[in-house]
Structures are given as structure tokens and as C-alpha cells.
Amino acid sequence: METITSKCVLLNAQATDKTAAIRLAGQLLVEAGYIEPGYVDSLLKREEVANTLLGATVAIPHGMVDDRHLIRRTGVAVVQIRNGVSWKDGEPARLIVAIAAQSDEHIALLRRLTRLMQRPESIEMLVETDDPELIVSALADVPAAPPFPAPVALPWPADAEASWALDYPNGLHARPATRWTEVAKRFSSEIRIVKGLEFADAKALTGLLSLGATRGDTLNVAARGNDARRAVDAMLEVMRTLSSEEQADAERARRNAMAARRQAPDWLPEHASQTLYGLGASPGLAIGQLVHHAAQRFDIQDTPGDVIADGEALEAAVLKVRDALSVLEAETRSRLGANEAAIFSAHRELLSDAELLRDAMVQILHGHGPAWSWQHVIKARVEKLQSLADPLLAARATDLRDVGERVLGTLLGVTRQRMVLNAPSILVAEDLTPSDTLQLDMRFIVGLAISGGGPTSHTAILARTLGLPAIVAAGSALLAAPEGSKAVIDGSVGAVYLDVAGADLDRAEAVIAAQAAARAALRESRHQPAETTDGHRVEIAANVANAKQAAAAIEAGAEGVGLMRTEFLFLERDTAPDEDEQYRIYREMTEVMAGRPLIIRTLDIGGDKQVPYLNLPAEENPFLGVRGARLLLTRQDLLYTQLRALYRAAKHGPIKIMFPMVTHTVEIEALRTHCARARAQVDGPVVPIGIMVEVPAVAVMADRFAPLVDFFSIGTNDLTQYTLAIDRQHPDLAAQADSLHPAVLTLIASTVRAAKASGTWVGVCGGLAGDPLGARILTGLGVDELSMSAQDVASVKAALRSESLAAMQTLAERAVAASTPEAVRAL
Ligand code: PEP
Ligand code: MG
Questions:
Q1: Distance between Cα 627 and ligand 2 center (Å)
Q2: In whole numbers, what is the pLDDT of the chain averaged over residues?
Q3: How far is the CA of 765 from the centre of ligand 2 (A)?
Q4: What order do you get walking across the sheet with 218-224 strand by strand?
Q5: Which end of the chain is less packed: N or C, by CB atoms within 10 Å?
Q6: In testing the pocket of ligand 1, which one of 566, 661, 663, 694 has its CB within 8 Å of the most ligand atoms?
Q7: Highest-confidence range of 251-265, 480-494, 739-753, by mean pLDDT?
Q8: Which atom of ligand 1 is nearest to the CA of 718?
Q9: What are phi and psi of 14, to 5 degrees?
Q10: Is it the case that residue 397 has pLDDT exceeding 90?
């Protein structure tokens, strides 16, 4: 059906006011034979009862339903008014798309228009074009043909721009995207995030999410307006600041999942009618009756009423839900903390997206009821999110559905029913929205079993925070499990056992009690030293990035800092920190440590951590490229700034300097010379100089490296990836990058042997140190110190206190002699 032709396009028209503009459009429709002249008055009448300004300077005048008999056939006319004409509350319209629709044939046109409006430069082009065919092709209902030139072909003169490679392991999901919008909204400039041919308004959450940006995507931040430069800088800052948080979250989730896969269950039943496996999302064992959580479903009828009243009702419902979310956010913050509360600010942000409401309003304008319109728009967005290639982003569709349903409930006056429980229960659900999770009756819910979802879903995060054992991705068989059956859930290994009874239940209860007691005991004993039963003491330290983390690590039981990763000081900004800034940071570290051991590692950039402002050449294999000490030796500006700052800080408390990624003995000689020179420049004290042992060459020749350094610290993360030739971040292989591999243990053993022979102190700061079994083997091998993330300190100390050094030495010997990591674990 032909609804628009170039005859109905009037370019560069002049109109003194809205009425004149509508009359011009009406005239085109009359001349083309689409309407009777009387319908022009109907177009004007509509303006008295509704605002037809869609946004982005596009207006869609259309007549009253009662006057449809004046339409001869469906048609559209476009009047282009480049200077604009005041439409509503001083807001101008520049593209007047007058619609005469006999039924709903024009919905496709509206969809096209609103889609174009999401790309303001597309509208800009239609307003400026001298070619009526361009307007025809942009609006014509030709679904198969790309309606428009690719947006990238359209120049958008930004006043400032910059590009950044997204490095969030889980892509751009709702939490970081919300923080982006919060920053963007502080500026008056229009800010766009461009990804390839697509872009989104940085102030609109749903737009950002629909970019489907995943790790590695290059994003361009462009801004136009008075504060464009500052806006771009601030956007870059927040984007980068979130990198380390996002990476730490993903690393924790990955480690938990890997640990769960390897863990032998604390409890297994003799009899269970069925066992269902999923992924462990929150550890621990729980016993309860199965209770199915019925998702609230709304049966929506399309009941249009008065357009204005319907629009107002929808807007009021959205505002009400936003207020309710603010309350929920504040409650969650005080109950669980800012991180968990952020889920609800993300939800509120989803509702602040003007496009959602506008799209729903368009549906209302075209004769649909408010609930139907809202549901229609939400459903389309949810489907779009679900269709994105990245499952992590697709999972965020749950958030949008959650807020969408809240609004529907409010609009329809339906309150969420609370489940009535009276006995310990394991909640079974297809998926739980964060608000469902938080509104659970915690007196009775003891565990969560979810058939869908993933370990990084908000539900999983909340369950961990609430200390509620949970499994996810258990499959649809879970939903068929009978309500009320007695079940046990093991959130550590990711299993649900159905119909457990008798002695099995008694044993499970004993294990639960023991787990609770162990958690309490660990916490109690965290400040006790890691002294083996035969009196051998190992120093326990923490890996940190800043003074705040160092203080938290000490509170968690750490006796020192075995690795301060200084690259984090460089990662979250636009320029390198200067000497004074670094000096202040290192000095603050010495103050927090108050005389405790502190090893500060020099910049380890390269590999997985890139810093755009250093303008380093892109490398095919960055893990094998100019990384760590290799970089510092070629960038002495960076090296000297850092060394001088370190030597100045060393006047305030003990510091050891450590160099990463050393491969050759000559590098140590060169680094020592630079250290001596920097020290002399600031008149600093002598400090111990050591290296990370993370390249197999150094471990193999440790006897020749040990005499050259004051200490070694073994980086098992990199030593493992380089020994096994497995990228430590590889999505499929990373689980095999197992530091308990006997090849890695053999290299560690040779390093420790060489260190002992020359009286060189040796620690371990890679992930193996924080694994209780790894820690026992390393102690058996003879290391002096173990440095790990703060949350592992208490359990590693307890593991070392539980056994004798002699037993750990035997364990270590057998581990080195084993053939596989599985065999090592079996010991
Ligand atoms: C290591 O490689 O084990 C290490 C501790 O350093 P990073 O993880 O920072 O590379
Ligand atoms: Mg390393």
C-alpha cells in the first residue's frame, strides 16, 4: 500500500505558526486525494485535545477518530520547516508528518518514525535534505529494504570526542550503564555513545543497553554543546573507573564457579527421588520444602479510553513506581549495602528513560489502552535485549520486565501478592526479579533454586549477600518438581536433591550446623597466626590496590601486603599520575600498614591491562609482548616517576619494591642501576628490591636469579598461563589454567630450592596462595609468605593451623610427583 509519495512532501516550507503548518500538510493530503477538505479541521481539532509533538522536533498531526469518514484512503504528507515552528510549550517542530489513517496501517510508519528519532542525526538529515525521495524512502513501508543510509555515514559534528575499548568482562549491563547515565545527565551537552553503525543517547539507559556492547567493543564518546569537553572527560572517567570493579566481580564469579566445579560435596544423600544439577550461585547447604514461586502475570485487555486521561494515568504510574524504587533503594542500602541498592537505582533509571514512555504514548495516541501500550513497548524492548548475542546482556531483560510489571501492577491497581509461608522453604522459580528476591519472607526461605539465570544475575548476587544458598540454571525439570516435597539444596556444588528423608536429613542438618560453626570460628580466629601444629609459622599477607583495601585486609586478618598492584593507579584515568600524586598514595599505604610488611609492585601494564593514554602500540599477543618490566625499561619516564615516588614514600615506613614480568638477568642489573639513580635523586633509604617469578625461564634458572635480588614473589597466575600455554582469560580454556598442575608445582619447587640455597626470601602472590590446598602445598614446599585476596585470609590461616609442616612437606612432595591436577587434588 502506498502511503507516501514525493508529491506529498513539501520541502523548506515557511509557516508562522502551528495552525499554518498543519494547514499546509492538510492541503497536500487534499491535493493528493487522500482526504476530504473537512479533515483538515479534524487535524486542528486533535491539537486541542492532544499534543502530537512526538519529540526530536517531529510532530504527527492526525484527525479525530469520529472524522475518519472524511478519509478517502490512507495517506501521509510531510512538511519540512527548517527553522521550526513553535508546537507545544515553545518546543519547535521541524518535520510535520500529517497522517490520515483509515485503520491501523500507519502503525508501521510510526514505528519507523520513532526508530528514526532514536538517531537524531537521521531526523536532522530529513530536516535539511533537498531530496523529497530521501524522506519518502525513510518513511515508506518497505520492510525488507534498509530504509536509510547507515548512521555512520552521517556526520554529526561533535565538539569533543574520544574512543575507549570496553573492558567490562560482562559487557555493558544495567549497573555500569546506570552510572554512565548518571554522569551524562550532569552535563547540558548532548552525549552519544557510538558503537560501529549504532549509537545511543548516553543519558538513556535502555538505548545504552540496546547497543549490546560487549568486552572488546570500541565505543566512541561524542558530545555536542557548551560543556562537551568536560562531558567527554567525565564519561571516560566513569567508564574506566568501573573497569576494576567489573573485573573484580567477574573474577570472583569465575573463581567461585571453578572452585564449585572442583569441590567435593560436604554431604551426599544415600537416597533421593531425583537429583537436579545446575550451577552453584551462592554456597552452602539448606533443607526445606519446595515452594513454587508463581510469577505475577497480567491479563491485559486493550481497552482504550480518553487519550489524555490514559496518557496521564500511565505517566502517573511510572512516577509512582520510580518513587517506590527510591524507597526500596534506600531500604536495601541500609540493609545490605550500596552495591545491592544499585540494582534499584538501575531500575529507577530504566524508568527515567523518556523513550519508553514516549513509545507507549505513541501507542495510546493510536488508539490503544494504556496498559496494553505499556506492555507492548516493554515486551518489544525485552525481546530485543533477549535477542542480543551476549547472554549476560540478554539476562538484563529480567530487570526491564521487572520494572515493566511494577508499572503495570500500579496502573491496574494490583498489588503484588506476598507468599504466605510457615515452614523452612526452598523457593523454586523460573527466574526471580531482584524485587522478588528482596521481598521474600526471610524467616522461612532457606534457599533458592532457579531453573534459568546465571551466576552473575542479580538474583545470584543478592543471594550471596543474603547468605542464602542458591543454584541457578537447573533446567525446566526443576519446575516440574512437586510442591511441598522435602529437598536439600547444595549451593556450593549446584545441586538439588528431592525427597530426602531419615538419616540423610539428620546428616545434612549436622553439616549445616558445622558449616555455620566453621564460619563463625573462622571469623573469630582470623587474627591468629598461621602456625602449623609443629610450630612453623608462615606470613600471611594480602593483595591490594589501594590503602582502603589494605586497611580492610588487615581487619580481615592479613599481617602485611604481599602485592600492591600499582597499575590500578594508572588504569582509571586520562593521564599518568605524577610523582607527587604517587608519593602521596604510597605514603598513605605506609601509614595504613604502620610498620607491617609492604611490597609495592611497579607498573604492570600490558597483557590484559591496557592504558590508552600511554599510546603503546597494539600487539598481536599482548601477554607475550611489552609488559611489566619490559615496558618500564623502554619507558624510563614512567619508571623514574614511580621509583622516585617510592623512594620518597620509603622514608615514612618500610617498603619493598618488586618488578613484574622479569625474564632475563640483565633486566635486573638494569633495574637495579635505575633504582640506585632514583634513590640518589630523592635521597631515599635503601629498600629491598625483588622480582615476580612468573615467567617459566626465571623459575627454571632461579639459581642464577636469586643472588641478584633481595626477594622473590611467585606469581602463580602468570606462571601457570605461561607454563601451560593457556590464556588465563580464555573463555573456554581458563578453567584448565590450573595452578595445581604438577608442572607449575615443579617450577615453584625449583624456585624455592634456589631461593633457600642463596638465603633469598620467597613469597607467593598468585591465586594458588589463597586456595587452602594450594597454601598447604606451598607451605610444604617451603615458601616464607603467602599473599592473597583479603577474603581468603581467614580460611587459609585455619588450613595451615590444622596440620603439621611435616605433613605438608609430604603432601608437597607427592603433589610435585603427581601427573595431573586432579591427582594432586585427590591427595
Ligand atoms: C600473578 O601473575 O600471579 C600475579 C600475582 O600478578 P597478576 O595477577 O597481577 O598478573
Ligand atoms: Mg602476573
A1: 10
A2: 86
A3: 9
A4: 160-165, 218-224, 190-195, 198-201
A5: N
A6: 694
A7: 739-753
A8: 2
A9: -120, 135
A10: no
Task: Give the closest residue (by CA) to ligand 1 atom 1.
Answer: 715
**Which uninterrupted H or E stretch holds 674?**
helix 665-682
Taking phi over 0 as left and psi of -120 to 50 as alpha, with beta for the rest, 84 belongs to: left
Ligand 1 atom at minimum distance from 721 CA: 2
- Using the mean position of ligand 2's atoms as its centre, give its distance from the Cα of residue 692 in Å: 8
The three cell numbers of residue 745 are 608445582
| Ligand 1 proximity of 696 Cβ (cutoff 6 Å) | no
Whether 237 and 229 have beta carbons less than 8 Å apart is answered as no
User: What is the C-alpha to C-alpha distance for residues 344 and 191, in angstroms, rounded to an integer?
Assistant: 24
478 Cα to the center of ligand 1, angstroms: 40
β-pairing, 279-282 with 530-531?
A: unpaired
Strand-pair partners of 222: 161, 192
Atom 9 of ligand 1 has which residue's CA nearest to it?
Answer: 565
- Mean per-residue pLDDT for 470-489? 87
Q: Does domain 160-257 have CATH number 3.30.1340.10?
A: yes
pLDDT (0 to 100) of residue 68: 75
Q: Is 491 helix (H, G, I), strand (E, B) or coil?
A: coil
Assess if CATH 1.10.1040.10 describes domain 535-612+619-826: no
Look-up: residue for cell 573507573?
Answer: 241
Q: What is the CATH number of domain 6-139?
A: 3.40.930.10
Residue 556 identity: A
Q: Which superfamily does 307-412 belong to?
A: PtsI, HPr-binding domain (1.10.274.10)
Question: Number of helices (H) and strands (E), helices first, in the chain?
Answer: 31, 26
**Is there a common fold for 6-139 and 535-612+619-826?**
no
- Using the mean position of ligand 1's atoms as its centre, give its distance from the Cα of residue 766 in Å: 5
The verdict on domain 264-295+418-511 having CATH code 3.30.420.40 is no
How many angstroms does the Cα of residue 265 sit away from the middle of ligand 1? 30
Nearest protein Cα to ligand 1, atom 4: 715
Pocket of ligand 1 contains residue 565 by CB under 6 Å: yes
| Alpha carbon 353 to its chain's center | 19
User: Does ligand 1 have an atom closer than 6 angstroms to the CB of 717?
Assistant: yes
Whether 765 is in the pocket of ligand 1, judged by its Cβ within 6 Å, is yes
Nearest CA to ligand 1 atom 10: 718
Helix (H, G, I), strand (E, B) or coil at 71: strand
Q: What is the pTM of this model?
A: 0.54
Rg (CA), the chain: 32
Q: Residue 327: which residues within 8 A CB-CB, separation 6 or more? A: none
> For atom 3 of ligand 1, which residue has the closest CA?
715
What are the residue numbers of the active site?
A: 62, 173, 458, 765
C-alpha cell at 32: 493528493
User: E strand or H helix at 190, and its extent?
Assistant: strand 190-195
Q: State pLDDT tens for residues 525-578.
A: 999 999 999 999 999 999 988 898 899 899 999 999 999 999 888 875 778 999
Residue 694 Cβ inside 6 Å of ligand 1? The answer reads yes
Which ligand 1 atom is nearest residue 715's CA? Answer: 3
Least confident window among 36-45, 94-103, 521-530, 631-640: 94-103
Average pLDDT in the 600-617 region?
83
Q: Which atom of ligand 1 is nearest to the CA of 767?
A: 3
Q: Say which amino acid occupies 699.
A: A
